[in-house]
Specification:
GO terms for molecular function: DNA-binding transcription factor activity. It comes from Ornithinimicrobium tianjinense. InterPro entries: ArsR-like_HTH, HTH_ArsR_DNA-bd_dom, WH-like_DNA-bd_sf, WH_DNA-bd_sf. By secondary structure, the chain is α+β, with helices and mostly antiparallel strands. It has one domain: Winged helix-like DNA-binding domain superfamily/Winged helix DNA-binding domain (Arc Repressor Mutant, subunit A, Orthogonal Bundle). About 40% of the residues lie in helices and about 10% in strands. It contains six helices and nine strands, in the order E-E-H-H-E-H-H-E-E-E-E-E-H-H-E. The radius of gyration is 18 Å and the shape is elongated. The termini are far apart.
Length: about 180
Amino acid sequence: MSSTVASEPFERRQATDAEKRALASALRLRILRMCLDEALTNREIAEVLDKNPATILHHVRTLVDTGYLQALEPRRGRRGAREIPYRTTGKSWYTYSEDSAAPMLEAFLAEVATLPETQRGMTRLGLRLPPEEMEEFRRRLFELLQEFHDRPRDVDAEPWSLFLALHPDTSQRRRP
């Protein structure tokens, strides 16, 4: 039988200055992704990312202070040490910042670089739609993403990630 985890509801809004700073790091975005379905300790995160635990702890604390990660009940780790597991709150889906594009892309590239080519499903699409159809496309795309985001998470299912970027096509000549 599969288990599910539901995200806590948050209202979609512009990130505060502290939240913008928290989301302005590709490393912190990767930590959020790692702690989405499994609570991980600082040491476990550091091992996966091949980083110094002190560096990771700084980033974890920033995410906890801004509400993107939550500390769970301490547990005994290796050799009986007290360790605190952290879990993503889901808040990052509901806060946005104009400054998050570069770190988001950097996190995506770091994650996808570890995969074999056969596991990278990528495509590009050029669109030429009138403004009202472009707005409809954006709205329907977001509604589809929101629908799947809102479904209960099956923590036993294989995890997948989606990166989506929509931007004016700079490779095409602009008409006057």
